[in-house]
């Protein structure tokens, strides 16, 4: 998402009309007293305040909330509504898959299909289990992906307010190559998600909203950790080497 581009405020039609009328009066009138009176009235209309500031520029656009862009506002709303921290959500997710390991955990909003009936799954697809009622659409949730040793992914959706699991299912889109890839990442990842987050938050202070295992452009297996600063609501993505825990890069997203 990118912030909307705003045009400079337009002068009011009243000011423009008053100026036009003043010019016509000066041209058409010959009486000096009438002319001086008209000019004075036009001047008062054009500069209603001692500073000469346009009325439009005195609008609430200078307020703190108006200075945030769309993404910053969304982060603030989502994080502020969340009561369950990333580590508690991670523990809950891993318990749903025996001997499973967390490979992805993201704070997001509940989508409309979260309340769909499990019987709506296509034929042959694994049906999701819904042990608890789903939160309303737009509410905060933690979407976790937990892998078995063979690379099979399980998706676990957790209510980010009360911490309860409301949907679990096996990823229906995986193929053998996907499972092999995940198994290889897990074999190379000597750092746990907790260790990666500790390294990331030592560089960028704030609230963790995403933890993900993958590889970078150099084919290194890494943990990507998103941290949101509550002071300005910017997001910093920190890349941590999954083998040795060293921070490889960090990037602030202000858009």
How far apart are the first and last residues' alpha carbons, in Å? 7 Å
The radius of gyration computed from the alpha-carbon positions, rounded to a whole number of angstroms, is 29 Å
Uncertain ranges: 1-32, 34-64, 117-124
Structural class: alpha+beta
Strand content: 15-25%
In round numbers, the mean pLDDT is: 79
Helix content: 25-40%
Short note summarizing the structure:
By secondary structure, this protein is of the alpha+beta class. It is built from six helices and eight strands. The chain is globular and about 45 Å long.
Structure report:
The protein has helices at residues 13-28, 32-46, 70-81, 86-95, 176-188, 193-203; strands at 101-109, 140-147, 153-159, 165-170, 207-215, 221-228, 235-241, 247-253. With 255 residues, the chain is α+β, with helices and mostly antiparallel strands. It is built from six helices and eight strands. 24% of the residues are buried. Strands 4-3-2-1-5-6-7-8 form an eight-stranded antiparallel beta sheet.
Which properties best describe this structure?
24% strand; 255 residues; eight-stranded antiparallel sheet; 8 strands; alpha+beta
Question: Helices and strands in order, then pairings?
Answer:
Blueprint: H1 13-28, H2 32-46, H3 70-81, H4 86-95, E1 101-109, E2 140-147, E3 153-159, E4 165-170, H5 176-188, H6 193-203, E5 207-215, E6 221-228, E7 235-241, E8 247-253
């Amino acid at each position: 998402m990118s912030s909307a581009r705003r045009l400079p405020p337009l002068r009011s039609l009243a000011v423009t009309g008053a100026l036009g009328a003043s010019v016509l009066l000066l041209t058409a009138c010959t009486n000096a007293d009438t002319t001086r009176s008209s000019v004075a009235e036009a001047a008062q209309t054009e500069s209603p305040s001692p500073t000469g500031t346009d009325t439009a520029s005195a609008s609430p656009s200078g307020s703190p909330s108006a200075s945030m862009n769309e993404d910053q506002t969304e982060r603030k709303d989502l994080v502020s509504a969340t009561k369950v921290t990333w580590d508690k959500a991670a523990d809950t997710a891993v318990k749903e898959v025996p001997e499973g390991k967390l490979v992805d955990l993201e704070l997001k909003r509940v989508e409309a299909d979260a309340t769909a009936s499990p019987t709506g799954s296509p034929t042959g697809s694994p049906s999701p289990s819904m042990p608890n009622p789903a939160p309303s659409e737009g509410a905060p949730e933690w979407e976790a992906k937990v892998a078995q040793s063979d690379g099979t992914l399980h998706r676990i959706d957790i209510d980010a307010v009360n911490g309860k699991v409301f949907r679990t299912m096996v990823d229906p889109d995986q193929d053998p190559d996907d499972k092999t890839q995940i198994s290889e990442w897990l074999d190379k990842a000597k750092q746990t998600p907790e260790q990666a987050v500790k390294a990331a938050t030592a560089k960028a202070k704030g609230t963790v909203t995403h933890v993900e295992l993958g590889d970078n452009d150099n084919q290194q297996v890494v943990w990507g950790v998103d941290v949101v600063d509550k002071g300005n609501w910017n997001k910093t993505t920190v890349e941590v080497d999954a083998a040795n825990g060293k921070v490889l890069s960090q990037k602030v997203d202000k858009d």
